[in-house]
């Protein structure tokens, strides 16, 4: 959206999604304020997070998710789960007798059949297993 303002015989063209407001400066009789599209009608999918930029906005995917172009999603685009096990086959290779299991937005290393966890960690990526 473009706004044009006429003042003292001059035209000021506001950038996309910005509105003019008067200021005290005699050099720049108008300053351009950004409209926060994230507070108004943005087109980010509910799975994405809206981030305001000057004159526009971006839709960002949360950790563990991606859009078509990586972490930035196109407006309306669904953020899809990253399959860390498929994209990073070595995700659990540091630990013996485990397999990688993809989770929504994350992954965990799980003991192979017939093995038991030998140590518990706060991080499910660090599971170690014994027979």
From TrEMBL:
Lineage, opening ranks: Eukaryota, Metazoa, Ecdysozoa, Arthropoda, Chelicerata
UniProt-listed Pfam families: EGF_CA
Cystine bridges: 92-109
UniProt xrefs under Gene3D superfamilies: Laminin
GO molecular function terms attached to this record: calcium ion binding
PANTHER family linked: FIBRILLIN-2 ISOFORM X1-RELATED, FIBRILLIN-RELATED
UniProt protein name: EGF-like domain-containing protein
Coiled coil (residue ranges): none
EGF-like domain segment(s): 34-71, 81-122
Keyword Repeat: yes
SMART domains linked to this entry: EGF, EGF_CA
UniProt keyword annotations, A-Z: Disulfide bond, EGF-like domain, Repeat, Signal
């Amino acid at each position: 959206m473009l706004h044009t303002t006429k003042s003292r015989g001059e035209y000021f063209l506001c950038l996309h999604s910005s509105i003019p407001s008067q200021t005290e400066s005699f050099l720049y009789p108008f300053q351009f304020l950004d409209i926060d599209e994230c507070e108004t009608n943005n087109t980010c999918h509910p799975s994405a997070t809206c981030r305001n930029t000057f004159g526009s906005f971006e839709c960002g995917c949360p950790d563990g998710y991606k859009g078509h172009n990586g972490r930035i999603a196109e407006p309306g685009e669904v953020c899809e789960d990253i399959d860390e096990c498929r994209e990073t086959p070595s995700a659990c290779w540091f630990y013996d007798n485990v397999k990688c299991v993809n989770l929504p937005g994350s992954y965990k290393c799980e003991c192979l059949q017939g093995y038991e966890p030998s140590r518990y960690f706060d991080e499910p990526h660090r599971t170690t297993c014994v027979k």
